[in-house]
Amino acid sequence: MYVVSAGPLDIGEPDKAFDAAHCDHGEVYELSSEGRIVVEQNVLAVRSQGRVAIFETGAPFRDTGSNPLHAGLVSAGFELDRIDAIIPTHAHLDHVGGIMAPAGHRNFRNAAIHLHASDVEFWLADERLGTRGEHSALVARRNLVPNLDRLEFHVDDQETFPNVTAMHTPGHTVGHTSFVIGSGNDFLFVVGDIVHHQCQLAHPRMKMLFDTDPDAGVETRVRMLEYLALRSMPAFFYHFPFPGLGYVERVGDGYRFSPLSDRKWG
């Protein structure tokens, strides 16, 4: 397994992202960068049984000459045309936005795209147009519609790629899915957007305003953080500081992140 950065992502002002009703509003600002929250986009590349999958693709990248994800994958020894599967946790723009190039060709020509069927249906529906989620919906259309014949839908608690089991974790989106990678006693949990920022570990019941269902998002986040803490299972966080690998530990009514230092794991 190898982690590559797809670059930073500005998710905006703290009060536009988080409902601070469950914590000190000032604390959210302290944890942000210059009044705005800037997070990472960590992409996990996995080799399993002779096949290669990447988890997420990053937001649309317009500078075709210096795409950090492509450069990082190549530097790590992965050929873009030999990637077999793209496995986004959901269909938001910063997760599927790198499937297609600005010029209209596929960035990963031979990769199947694994998603939850309900997420594809939701983000491609006309009802998303004219709503707060319109931008994500348009990016989803641009990246998924040309690849409808390459979609593979995962099923909760079943293997979607060799040694990769899907775990439906709705709330952030209707089809948001996390993954357990590994076998035997050696596992890694792919968190996705259950958590965007470490302030959500200290205050797990703080709602994320980007969630399709913020109440369900809180319920899922609390349940999965407790799941990770009880099992001491290493986890991969898409939006945490690079490389986003570490453990979740319980502290009082909240949790904390204990990072692993290496970007290569397993």
TrEMBL record:
Keyword Hydrolase carried by entry: yes
Coiled-coil residue spans: none
Top-rank taxon: Bacteria
InterPro entries: MBL_superfamily_lactonases, Metallo-B-lactamas, RibonucZ/Hydroxyglut_hydro
Keywords: Hydrolase, Metal-binding, Zinc
Domain Metallo-beta-lactamase, residue spans: 40-239
Keyword Glycoprotein recorded: no
Family from the record: Belongs to the metallo-beta-lactamase superfamily.
Name of the featured protein: MBL fold metallo-hydrolase
Lineage summary: Bacteria, Pseudomonadati, Pseudomonadota, Alphaproteobacteria, Hyphomicrobiales
